[in-house]
Amino acid sequence: MRQLIILGIVGLIAQLIDGSLGMAYGVTSTTLLLAAGTAPAAASAAVHFSELGTTLVSGISHHKFGNVDWRTVAILAGPGFVGAIAGSTFLASLDGEAATPWISGILLALGVYVIWRFLALGGARPTFKSRPSAKMLVPVGLIGGTLDSIGGGGWGPVGTTTLLSSGRLEPRKVVGSIDTSEFIVAVGGSLGFLIALGSQGFEWQIVAALLVGGVIAAPFAAWLVKLLPARVLAVAAGGIIVLTNVRTILLAIGLGSSAVWLTLGGLALVWFALLAHIVRIERAAAKVRKAEEAGVEVPVGG
């Protein structure tokens, strides 16, 4: 029972991050399940089935708050569905123990990608040129859907960061559209795992715990997307993902526990420094915005 409560809290926190950031529910949940010893296919399958509920509630909530661009959702969803089925079928064919360090490698890369993308945005305010084209959205959907099933996460890191960096869609609509289209991706991934693993391949208690926590958090996250600084959440979530998966990989290659903890300690110091840097950027940007609204000129360097 204690483990299920912890998993419910994991689902709640992961959905709060995902719903306000447009990424990290799958990556965060799968990372923690792998760290707890769950096989890669079973972990990703549990996450995708729980996402059937969390993404549905999240999509409805984002729609109510006006955070969804339905054209973007319509174009992304189909390729994402196809990619999710392909990725889940491939993952189910792999040996669980042998696959764990490789899946952790994918998750590690996604965590670094999340941090890098949001650090690269700096303090600049985005400008919106035009809506994203189908030529851009289709490959994003295919790649994101495939990685989402193989790594247990990837739809948000690929889709959200690509759309945000393109400057073609308002940030809150990027988050809302990615979260809403993720329901179709979760359907595709779940079907693929169900066909490949059968119903006995699912740990339904894990699915239920993640689902309950995620559903509770989804409406709050859709509201928070207008309030919380995305870059702080991105670096925070990315750091957790990096640290957990580095630990898994180092243990898999047989590194001693003292060396593992020294490495993790060094990475944690870098992570805290990045968080402090992002908080300073956010405060400076908020000061500039407040001054602009008041009609006061702020010197460079603030």
From TrEMBL:
Topological relation to the membrane, as annotated: Multi-pass membrane protein
Segments crossing the lipid bilayer: 32-52, 73-93, 99-119, 174-198, 204-225, 232-253, 259-279
Keywords: Cell membrane, Membrane, Transmembrane, Transmembrane helix
Coiled coil: none
Alphabetized Pfam families for the sequence: TauE
Compartment list: Cell membrane; Membrane
Chief localisation class: membrane
PANTHER family: MEMBRANE TRANSPORTER PROTEIN MJ0441-RELATED, MEMBRANE TRANSPORTER PROTEIN YTNM-RELATED
Family assignment from sequence similarity: Belongs to the 4-toluene sulfonate uptake permease (TSUP) (TC 2.A.102) family.
Protein name: Probable membrane transporter protein
Organism: Brevibacterium sediminis
